[in-house]
C-alpha cells in the first residue's frame, strides 16, 4: 500500500491526515504499512489530537513498532507533548533523523509548538529571563531575543530580561487553545538545564503565580 503523497509546496495537513486514516481503514487485515503509521501518528501530534495518537500507538502491532524505530521516535515526541515539556519537544524532534514522509510534519509540529510557547509567555508573563524564554521556545538566546524584538516586545540586555507584549484579546492561536485546557489551573513543567519552573496559568482570569521548584 503506497504511503499518502504530499503535494509539492504548500499542502493541507488535514487532507493528508484524511488520506492516512483512509489507508489504515482500507489496509488488508486492518494492518497498515509503517510509513502510513508514521505519518498518521505524526499528524495526530501536529493537530494536537492526543487521544487518537494514543489509541493509534496502542493498536500498532508490536512487531511493526520494534522493526521501525522511527515510530518510537515519533511517540517519544508525543510523550513530551503529553507532559507539556516544551524544551523536551524541541530536543526530541531535533534528536531524530526523520524520513522524507515524516520530516515535513515534524518541522511543522516544531513550529506550531514554538508559536504556542510564544503565545503562552505573552499571556502569562510580564517579564521572563531571556535564557528561560529561549529554552521555552527552542531557540538560541540571541535568535529568540531578535525574534521578540521584531514582534514589538522589549528586552533589557543588562538584566537579561524579556518583557512580552500583551496580545490583542481573542488573538490567541486556536491550536494553542486546544493545547492548553481552558478551565481550571494548568501546571506546566519547564525542564531547564539547572532547575524546573512550576507555574500556574489561569485561563479565565489574568493571574499568574510562580510556584516553588519541585
Automatic annotation (TrEMBL):
Annotated TM spans: 188-211
UniProt entry keywords in alphabetical sequence: Cytoplasm, Membrane, Nucleus, Signalosome, Transmembrane, Transmembrane helix
Any GO BP: protein deneddylation
Keyword Cytoplasm: yes
One GO cellular component term noted in the UniProt record for this chain: nucleoplasm
UniProt-listed PROSITE patterns: PCI
Keyword Membrane: yes
Residue ranges occupied by any PCI domain in the UniProt entry: 8-179
Subcellular locations according to the entry: Cytoplasm; Nucleus
Database matches in Pfam families: CSN8_PSD8_EIF3K
Matching PANTHER family: COP9 SIGNALOSOME COMPLEX SUBUNIT 8
Family membership noted in the UniProt record: Belongs to the CSN8 family.
Job of this protein: Component of the COP9 signalosome complex (CSN), a complex involved in various cellular and developmental processes. The CSN complex is an essential regulator of the ubiquitin (Ubl) conjugation pathway by mediating the deneddylation of the cullin subunits of SCF-type E3 ligase complexes, leading to decrease the Ubl ligase activity of SCF-type complexes such as SCF, CSA or DDB2. The complex is also involved in phosphorylation of p53/TP53, c-jun/JUN, IkappaBalpha/NFKBIA, ITPK1 and IRF8/ICSBP, possibly via its association with CK2 and PKD kinases.
Protein name stated in the entry: COP9 signalosome complex subunit 8
Organism of provenance: Canis lupus dingo
Lineage: Eukaryota, Metazoa, Chordata, Craniata, Vertebrata
Name of the coding gene: COPS8
Amino acid at each position: 500500500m503506497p504511503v499518502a503523497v504530499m503535494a509539492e509546496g504548500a499542502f493541507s495537513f488535514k487532507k493528508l491526515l484524511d488520506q492516512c486514516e483512509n489507508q489504515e481503514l482500507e489496509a488488508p487485515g486492518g494492518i497498515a504499512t509503517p510509513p502510513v503509521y508514521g505519518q498518521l501518528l505524526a499528524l495526530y501530534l501536529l493537530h494536537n489530537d492526543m487521544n487518537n495518537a494514543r489509541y493509534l500507538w496502542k493498536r500498532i502491532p508490536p512487531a511493526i513498532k520494534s522493526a521501525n524505530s522511527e515510530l518510537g521516535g515519533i511517540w517519544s515526541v508525543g510523550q513530551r507533548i503529553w507532559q507539556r515539556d516544551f524544551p523536551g519537544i524541541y530536543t526530541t524532534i531535533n534528536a531524530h533523523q526523520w524520513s522524507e514522509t515524516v520530516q515535513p510534519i515534524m518541522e511543522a509540529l516544531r513550529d506550531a509548538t514554538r508559536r504556542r510557547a510564544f503565545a503562552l509567555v505573552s499571556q502569562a508573563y510580564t517579564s521572563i529571563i531571556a535564557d528561560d524564554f529561549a529554552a521555552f521556545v527552542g531557540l538560541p538566546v540571541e535568535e529568540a531575543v531578535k525574534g521578540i524584538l521584531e514582534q514589538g516586545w522589549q528586552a533589557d540586555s543588562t538584566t537579561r530580561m524579556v518583557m512580552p507584549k500583551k496580545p490583542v484579546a481573542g488573538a490567541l492561536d486556536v491550536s494553542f487553545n486546544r493545547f492548553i485546557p481552558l478551565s481550571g489551573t494548568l501546571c506546566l513543567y519547564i525542564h531547564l538545564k539547572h532547575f524546573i519552573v512550576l507555574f500556574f496559568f489561569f485561563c479565565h482570569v489574568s493571574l499568574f503565580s510562580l510556584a516553588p521548584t519541585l
